Amino acid sequence: MTEEKKEGALSGYRVLDLTDGRGTYCTRLLADMGAEVIKIEKPGGGSARSIPPFAGNMPHKEKSLFFLYRNTNKKGITLNLENPDGKAILKKLVTSVDVLVESFDPGFMKDCGLGYETLKAINPGLVMASITGFGQDGPYKDWKGSNIVDFALSGAMIGSGFGDGKPTALPGSPGDDAASVFAGVSIITALYVRGESSEGQYIDASAYKASRHFLYPWGLVMWHSNYEPDKPLPGPEGRLGAAVYPVFPCKDGYIRVVALTPRQWEALLRVVGEPEVLCMDEWKEFYYRIGNADVLFALMTEFTAAYTMEELTEMGHKEGVPIAPIYDTSGFANSPQTKSRNFFVELDHPVIGKYKCPSPPYKWSVSQCAVTLPAPCVGEHNETIFCDELGYSNIELSALRFAGVI
User: Fold this and answer.
1) Greater confidence, 164 or 342?
2) CA angle (337 as vertex; 331, 338 as ends), nearest 5
3) CA angle 368-371-385, nearest 5°?
4) What's the rounded Cα separation, in Å, for the pair 130 and 112?
5) In whole angstroms, what is the distance from residue 107 CA to residue 141 CA?
6) DSSP string spanning 358-402?
7) What is the per-residue burial (b if ≥16 Cβ within 10 Å, else e) of 262-271?
8) Of 326, 149, 151, 157, which is closest to residue 239 (Cα–Cα)?
9) What three-state secondary structure class fits 62?
10) Which of 209, 221, 260, 394 is deepest in the core (most CB within 10 A)?
């Protein structure tokens, strides 16, 4: 007996994806939840297809792991938005969609005659999200961000890297992905509101603001809790490094322990057998533990060295203190948690063949949220969209291709 396939929470909704690199994860989130996402790239493919690493370590527009991961479950077409015919085709597509997401520089869509007010006149219920580095307006809108700039401005870099070394950037694109999550949640909220009002909304998402709120919110919390008019703002935190979120060696690798609150500290004491020296009252104070991190590290290492990552993780789970293994890529892929949740699913791509792809990091009980299709090749669904849906003939499609429209 086969399991009945569930509908996604966004099944029935249609999305135009005009992102290229930044913001692409937003539309994958919507696609995972069942939305029909049509990715629109410039003729020949977008720049995100050139982002390494590549499958087989061979640079190729269909082999970028960055692109493959962020564009699963989507259809793909090509369209030149700077061409009059391309603009006209986009406007036709807008009439039948619920959402449009773009990541061009501020003002690009408006300058092309495709701003929100223009598209809303065509489709009053359209929800449109623009994802940029610093927003659509304001004094910083023309600044050029990057992965390391976004991560540094978030405040999170102060806790990245070893405490006695230089701050380091987080791999990947955490700032852009934070903006994608922000935009995705906002889109879902706007669609919910539209159910009552029938009106669409415009969403302005910036990687700077999203990363400031999502990657390292503690600075904002401290600012608001300590703010007093006419008094200087609190200064930045010091680089406390492993004193706050320590990493300890064990038999087969490393673990990270988070014992900040009194409850967590008491649970950690139970894990290590409540040694007399750590049961002294002064160790209950969080700042005392930070100030004596070297002593605590030596005592903890003596204990952790006798156990494996999995054993220590289970001890922490049992007593109520967060202890997590620090895996390398292979360790994560083969961990009991990853395997039990069937986190990696097999997809079959026309160019790279069968491969394992990460699924969404959450599972829902009522609706489906899953990866079922590989990322599209360049223009893979041109004929489906332009001919079957919009009514172009094969001859007209060839003419559009020859004219550089698609």
Assistant:
1) 342
2) 65
3) 100
4) 14
5) 10
6) E--S---SSSB----SPPPPTTTTHIIIIIIIT---HHHHHHHHH
7) eebbbbbbeb
8) 157
9) coil
10) 209
**Residue 121 structure tokens:** 């006149």
In tens, the pLDDT along 4-63 reads 568 999 999 999 999 998 999 999 999 999 999 999 999 999 999 999 999 999 999 999
Closest CA to 321 of 313, 329, 332: 313
Q: What is the mean pLDDT of residues 302-326?
A: 96
Q: How far is it, in rounded angstroms, from Cα 392 to Cα 404?
A: 16
The Cβ of residue 33 has, within 10 Å, a number of other Cβ atoms equal to 22
Domain ranges of the chain: 14-214+345-402, 245-336
DSSP 278: G
Place of tokens 């300058």: 111
CA atoms of 133 and 368, how far apart (whole Å): 32
Which pair of tokens denotes residue 201? 């909304």
The verdict on domain 245-336 having CATH code 3.30.1540.10 is yes
